[in-house]
Every structure is written in structure tokens, then in C-alpha cells.
Amino acid sequence: MEFKSEYYTPWSEYEKTNNVSPDNADVIKANTQTYEEMVFDFTMWLIM
Amino acid sequence: MVENAQSKNQLFIDIDEGKIPKRVPVYTWMDITYIMQYAGVDLRKAQWDVDKFKDMIEIGAKSFQSDINPATFTRIQPVYNILGAQNFVMSSEGQIQHPEITGMGPEDYDEMIADPYKYTHDKILPRLYKNLDTTPEEKAKVFAKAFKAHSDIFGQIFAHHDLMNEKYGLANDRVGCQTVAPFDQVADQFRSFTGISSDIRRCPDKVVAACEAVTPMMLKAGVKPHSSRQKRTFIPLHMAPYMREKDFEKFYWPTFKALIEGLWENGAAPLLFVEQDWTRYLDYLNELPAGTQMMFEYGDPKVIKEKVGKKHIVTGLYPLTLLARGTKQECIDKAKEIVDILAPGGNYIFTFDKVAINIKDANPENIIAVNEFVKEYGVY
User: Fold this and answer.
1) How many structural domains comprise chain B?
2) pLDDT tens-digit profile of B122-179?
3) SUPFAM superfamilies, alphabetically (chain B) (predicted)?
């Protein structure tokens, strides 16, 4: 049951699109994907 | 015996691990507006005042003899105001109310089913929040302001909760995030109660497809990095008691069950608010993975304990209305009756049957007396 949307960028897609270096992936994920998730959470709060 | 935060946390951990705790844990829920009224502040002003929120969290922590701080924030007026909310509106008394509103027309099922999250941004949000119904540039600006306000305000609320737990020796909050049953999501803020009631007759296949389409989104909403048995996913259940059982079986249950199973598979433990009377559906609830916490509003405690209480964690069933009108002794007698039925064998947390929102919902002195009684009487 995977969540997919044109308006949601999963980390795997972000990695590809932005040529994320595997050496720095952890720190980049922690400081970028977090905000994608926060926007998702805020959106859900607006409709609950 | 003086109890500290660690010993109070252990009461809940024991419940979550299927052990019998030292005593029945006491978990009172109050909307922050109840505490604002208890504190005697002007609700219409306090709903805007984030600094005042902190005072209210402290009053909640020290005043009501709950093992967990009862102060609960769900509706944040500054954010709703930035957005021009139509779905959450402040009343003249300062309570935030939820008028029935339709975010989605019946002609939009296919578009919503194709991509519920995109549809939410493109269509639902501008219908629920009038300040988002504008040009893309202005919409982005309003959304950014509201997002920032939401993030800042909840950041302060959570941090102050942690501080107050430490100061007053309370157990950690048991709710880590929230999601909604797929059918309730489609009904409540998308199609409305009236709209969905018509749709299940006029376009039943679309309703089934819509519930299936939103399920991955609702699952994602309910799983967080901090999810655990002690940081649960709160799910307020709404529509089922108003449905015929054959409609429940077809429209509500399959995706609700899939959601709950998906949460457990992803390390998230559900905390259901079983709103209204689910007596007809207790056998269904018993099919859910063991250890699901269920806060019942109505029903026969003996029947619920017998049918659900061996497998799941039962809470609720203490009538908040009695706390409003009963004498202290009547309230304590009722607590004894409920604890005598639900506590044996464990799997039980003492809560009232609903969240106190308005000061008229419950006499604070009765709440304190009952919680003190349960802590003393509910020793195993």
C-alpha cells in the first residue's frame, strides 16, 4: 500500500532528480525530506 | 505513595505489554478550551494567544489528577484565520465549531480517486479555506504563512508539554499523531454527512473506490518515525453507528481494517475513539490486531469487556454527563462500578467517555475527585 501523488516527492525520486551523493545521503535526507513530510502532515491536519 | 513520571509511564508500558500494572492508569482528555474556561480567561482572546496556551498547559498538568496532562490542542485559531477557514469557525463564545461543508462535489469522484493528495490541494483546500481560493501566487503565500504558523505554534505546544511533564511528574502523552478511517475521511470533509449518505445509494462503486484511493494517504498520515505502542495514532471514528450493517460491511469496514492492519505492520499502534455506540460492531473490532486501544463512548461495559477487553485495551465508558450534574459521591460510585467491571485482568485505562470541551461538560471538582478515587481504588 504505497502512497503516491504527483504533488508528493518521495526520497527515492528526490535522490535521482538532485544527483544526491551516496556519501551525503543521510544528512541531505534529514535536512530536505523532512520538509516534504511536514507539508504532507500539515495538509492532512487541514482536512481532519 | 509519591509517584514520579517514570512510575506513571510504567503503568502504561505494562498495559501495552499485556501485563497488569500496579494500578489502573488515569488518562483524562480535555480540549484546551475547557482548561481556558476553568482558568477563567476570555476564550475569545485566549484562542489567539500562544503565550497563554503555555499557561493553560501548566494548569492542565497540575490541576486534574490525571497521569497524563489532559490539555489537548486540535484547533488552532491563528492558522484557521490566516487561511479563511470555512470548516472550522469560532463561535461568539470562542469555541471553534465545525459546520457541515462540502469540499467535493459528486461529479469529482474520478478526479479525486486518481490522486487524492493532488485533488486535496487543487480542489478541497480552496473550498474549505477561502483565502486559498485565489491566484496560484497568492495561494502559495497564504499556504506558506499558515504552514509556518502551524509549525511554530505546535512546536511551542509540544515543547511546553514536555517541560510540564517533567515539572509535575506526569507520564508522556500517548498520542503521537492522528489519522482518519478512509470512509470517514471521504464523508466528513470531502462529501459531507448528507452527501455521502446520498452517494452510497446513487454511486456505490465510486464510494468504494474513493475509500480505497484515500487509504494509502490515511496510512501515511498515521505512521511517524516516533510511532510506537506508547506514542499511538489517534483515530476518531465517526460514521459507522449511523450506517446500516450491510453498508458498514461494504463501505466502511474493508478499508478501515486495512488501515489498522497497515498501521500495526508499520510499527504504529492505533488509539481509536469509538464514537457513539458500536455494540453492533464489537465482533468486527475484535478482528483487529491485538493491543489496539479503544476509547468507547457508549455501550454496556460488561459486554464490551467480555467481547473486546481480552484482546484489546479498553478505555472510556464513564459518562462525562454525570460529572456535570452528579454529586461527588454519585460520581465516585459510578467510577467504582466501572472500574469493578473493566479493571479485572488488566487491559484497562480509566478515561471518561468523551473529551471535555466546555466547562459545562463536567464539574472540575468531580473530575478531580473521581481521578483521585480511581488512583487509590484501582490498585491491583
Assistant:
1) 1
2) 999 999 999 999 999 999 999 999 999 999 999 999 999 999 999 999 999 999 999 9
3) UROD/MetE-like
Closest partner residue to B120 (CB to CB) among A4, A38, A47 is A47
Q: Which helix (H) or strand (E) holds B112?
A: helix B109-114
* pLDDT band of B98, cuts 50, 70, 90: confident
Q: What residue in B sits closest to A6 (Cα-Cα)?
A: B118
Helix (H, G, I), strand (E, B) or coil at B157: helix
Residue B109's pLDDT is: 98
B167: closest CA among B87, B60, B254, B259? B60
Q: At B299, is the secondary structure helix, strand, or coil?
A: coil
Residue B22 belongs to domain with CATH number:
3.20.20.210
Domain for residue B212, yes or no?
A: yes
Query: How far is it, in rounded angstroms, from Cα B272 to Cα B281?
Result: 14
- In chain A, residues 1-48 whose CB comes closer than 8 Å to chain B: 1-8, 38-48
Give me the residue spans of the domains in chain A. Answer: 24-48
**CB nearest to A1's CB, from B185, B189, B216:** B216
